[in-house]
Amino acid sequence: MAKYLISRIIRGIISIAVVVAIIMVMIYGLMDRTLIFAQDSTYSHTSNNTKVTYRYAKWEEYGYLDYVPYADYLQSLLDDGEIDEDTRTSAVSIGRTAENDSDLVSEYVAQFTSYYKSQGYTVVRLDAVMQSAKKVADGGTQQLFAYKNIPLTKRLVSYFCSIFVIDNVNNVEEIEGERGLTFTWYDPMYGGEKFSPALMGNGTTHKYLVYFDSKFPYFHQNILTIHLGTSYVINSGIDVFTTMTASQGSYVKSNITYPTGLTESSADDLHTATYVKNSLSTSAVLEARYTDDYTNVSTVKNGMSKMGYSFVIGIIAVIIAYGLGIPLGITMARRKDKLVDQIGTVYIIFILAVPSRDYIILYKAIG
């Protein structure tokens, strides 16, 4: 039995990998990548060079390629201490054409071109698009960038290696205070008076790594999280796994004690707090509630998640299928070639022959 289960699990994992690989080949290799802009209103309202750079930036976001603007290259040199701010400011302003570049700009453009070509990138320079002799057309500002298509094998390896993510105290670059973990028997979310063990981090992506609450299974952790990729259509920008497991429905409010000590009726779930750089300093609302940049929280709702509803519907479907199917099957077998058997046979052939989508539409129409 154990060998059978292990064999089934291994085959299941292999099947998932094969399906993901086929989908990636279809999307990234066979489909026209410009189709992602079909309903993009921003793309349709841009023009000239701005439209080109927007296209490459979006392709990078969707995982087609690696895109490096010239300005980002200079910023990386500044961050590494290789140039100062004055040099970056002077070098970033490329001319309308290469002939119009200053000596300093020409030097760094040559460095940029040489470096990225040596790394297998394609370097693209777009001269300014002029509306008149002295006026640049809308979206016609000169551009310089490098790009490199991401191979399918690298994309597959990267995807599978990033499915399971372990949170640690070095995940966040800039934090207040010392990096580390703090364990408490009395969760601050409950005002520090209720016995509720919690493990919190500073420097981690999640504020709460381990905590308890009144929701099944009562014990929760954010040390190991699952990432299935970013959703681009429904809940755009949110991880697919989060979209699948987040609760739905109306907000459920309760008395919440925020890190600053402020207590109010809110649906915020402080246990889901994640780090957002500089969020505290840019919002008076957040500053009144939080003491650090762990300000991104989900809300408590009274409904189940999409995955939860799918499980419930699946269980109900199985109960109905066996509860009705077995007795009806026995009845048809005992009355072979009778009216009950003939009606049952016609119905079975009908549901097998008609596609599920049309079958559902038909029953919705009947009411």
Tell me the overall shape: extended
Assembly classification: single chain
Provide the β-strand percentage band: 15-25%
Give the number of DSSP strands.
13
Uncertain segments are: none
Helical content stands at: 40-55%
Give the averaged pLDDT, no decimals.
89
Q: Main sheet?
A: 4 strands, antiparallel
Strand line-up across the major sheet: 5-6-7-8
Structural class: alpha+beta
Computed CA radius of gyration, to the nearest angstrom:
29 Å
Order of helices and strands: HHHEHHHEEHEEEEEEHEEEHEHHH
Distance between the termini: 46 Å
Helix count equals: 12
Task: Give a short overview.
This protein has helices at 2-30, 41-44, 48-61, 70-79, 85-91, 103-118, 152-161, 240-245, 284-287, 306-334, 339-353, 356-366; strands spanning 65-69, 122-126, 143-149, 164-166, 180-184, 198-202, 208-212, 219-221, 224-226, 254-257, 263-266, 268-275, 294-299.
Q: What tags apply to this protein structure?
A:
367 residues; four-stranded antiparallel beta sheet; three-stranded antiparallel beta sheet; alpha+beta; 42% helix
Description:
By secondary structure, the chain is of the alpha+beta class. 42% of the residues lie in helices and 17% in strands. It has a four-stranded antiparallel beta sheet with strand order 5-6-7-8, with no helix packed on it. The model has no long low-confidence stretch (mean pLDDT 89).
Question: How does the SSE layout of this entry go?
Answer:
Elements lengths: L1 H29 L10 H4 L3 H14 L3 E5 H10 L5 H7 L11 H16 L3 E5 L16 E7 L2 H10 L2 E3 L13 E5 L13 E5 L5 E5 L6 E3 L2 E3 L13 H6 L8 E4 L5 E4 L1 E8 L8 H4 L6 E6 L6 H29 L4 H15 L2 H11 L1
Antiparallel strand pairs: 1-3, 2-3, 4-9, 5-6, 6-7, 7-8, 10-11, 12-13
Helix pairs in contact: 10-11
